[in-house]
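Researcher: Checking consistency across runs. Here is Outer membrane protein assembly factor BamB again:
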Amino acid sequence: MKIIRFGTTIFTSLSLLTAALFFQQEKDLTNVFALEQTSDIIPTEIKELSHLSYGFQGQTSMITKGQIQTFPDTYSNLPGVFTFRGNHLRDSAAYGLVNEKPSQILKQWEFKTGSSPRWGGGAGWTGQPAIVKWANDVKMTMNINGEFKNKENFVEVIYASLDGKVYFFDIESGKQSRPAIDIKNPIKGSVSIDPRGYPLLYVGQGIPQTGNSQIGFRIYSLIDGKLLHFVKGLDSYAYRGWGAFDSAALVNRNTDTLFLGGENGLFYSMKLNTKFDAKKKTISVNPQTVKYRYKIGNFNHQGIENSVASYKNMMYFTDNGGTLQGIDIAKMKPVWALGMTDDSDASIVIEPQKGIPFLYTGTEVDKQGSKGNSILRKVNGLTGKVMWKKEIPALTILGENPVNGGLLATPIIGKNDISNQIIFTIARYKTMSAGLMLSLDKETGKEIWRREMSNYAWSSPVAVYDKKGNSYIVQCDSVGTIYLIKGKTGEIIQKKNFYGSNIEASPAIYNNTIVIANRGGRIFSLTIK
C-alpha cells in the first residue's frame, strides 16, 4: 500500500514540491517528506523453540509501536557505500559501473595513518570504508573543508583505522576533507553512515586500549564531529564479558531504527529519535534501546562479530559458536535458530528469490581444533532449512594469539553474468599460508570454478560490473597482493602488490575507484582501467 511517511525525524519547511524531488540525487534531503512504497511484511509463525532460551531488556514496543518495522528494498537513495557490504542484504560493497574490459589496476593516492602501540595503523578486519556523495544542503551543514564544500561532484571516503581515528578524504585527490575523529582506541570493524543521508556516523571499537570502561559503540555528529551517544560494551545483562563491536550497524531509514550485534552476545535494536535541522545546523539522537540475549542448547560462545543482515522484517546473524538465528523485528520474536557449528565471523549474505530470502554463510576452523572444515551453507531464511552444505578443509593457529582459517571473508552473491554463482574465499587451505577462491552454483552447491591462492585472504572479495553485465572481482590477500579477476571463470586479469603488507581489510569501490587499507599503516586508492 502507498503511505505518506513523515517519519520519526523532525524536518523544517515541508513542501510537496521537495517531496516530489526527493528521489533526485542532487536535490536537498532536508525539509522533505517521502511518498514511497512500503515494503511488505513477511508473515511468520512464532513457535516455541525448545533449544532456544531468550529474553529482552527494554520495552520491545518501542521498536514496534506505531510503525511498520520492515526494511525497504533499497537501503539508501543516495550514491555510495553506506555500511559493510553496502546494504541490509550485505550483498555489495560497490557503487556504479566500471569501464568495459578493464586490464589493469593503477595507484591513485595514498595516506599514512598514525599507529597504536600494539595494533599499529592502517586498517584491520573487516576494515571497509564508507563512500558517500552527500546532498548539497547536508554537505553545507558539516565541517568539511571549504575546498570540498564548494566542489560540485565531491565524494567523501570515511575510513576507520587501527590507530583509533576515523579519517575523511576526497575520493578524487586523497586530500583530507575534514578533521579526523579520534576515539583513542583501535577500530577493527567498518563504519556505517546513515542511509537517509543525515550527518551521522556509527562506529564500533575493537580493542580497549584506554580501558574496558570505554570500549563500546559510538554515534557521532558529522556536523561538528561531536559524540552524540555511547553504548557501553561491558554489560551486566550480557552472558559474555567482552565489549568490542566489530559489527557494522544497519539503519532502517523508514523507521529511524538501528540494529547491531555486539561481541558481548547481545543483539541491539535502537529507536534513534533523530532530530535534524539543516537550517540551524543541528542534529541529535536520543536512543531507546532494546537488548536481546539468548542461549541455544549448551552453547557458551555468544559473540556477534559479523554484521547483522536483514530482508524486510527478518533479521539474521550468526556468532562465535556458529549458531544462526532469524528474528522477526516486526514482532521482536525469534522465528528459528540453528545450533552450533563453528565460529562464524563472515557476514551472512542474502538473495531474495520469489519472496524467499536465501542466506549464504560459512564458518571458520576454530572450535574444531588446529584442522577441520569450513562449513558453507545455503539456508532458507523463512524456515531455517539447510538447502545445501559443503565442507572445505582448512587449518588454524590456536593458542594465546590465534589466527584462524576457514571463511572470514564475506562471500559474493553473483549478479548479471555470474547470477548463478556464490563465491567464497577460504583462508589456510591445504597449508597455513595458502587460500582458495571457490565459486559454487547457488542452486545446487556444486563447484563451478576454483582458484588456489599462494597466500590466504581474510579480505572480502568485491564484484563490480560493466554496462554489459560482465563481472570482475577485486580480491586482496595476506601479503598485499591485489587481484583483478574475471568473475565468470576465475581467470586472473592482473595482480599487483604495491606495499608488501597484509590486507585483511575489505575494499569499497565507487565506479572505477577502489579504496582499501593495509596493516602497514596506509590507506590508498586504486583505479581500475
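Researcher: Does this match what you'd expect to see?
Model: One thing to look at in this run: The radius of gyration is 21 Å.
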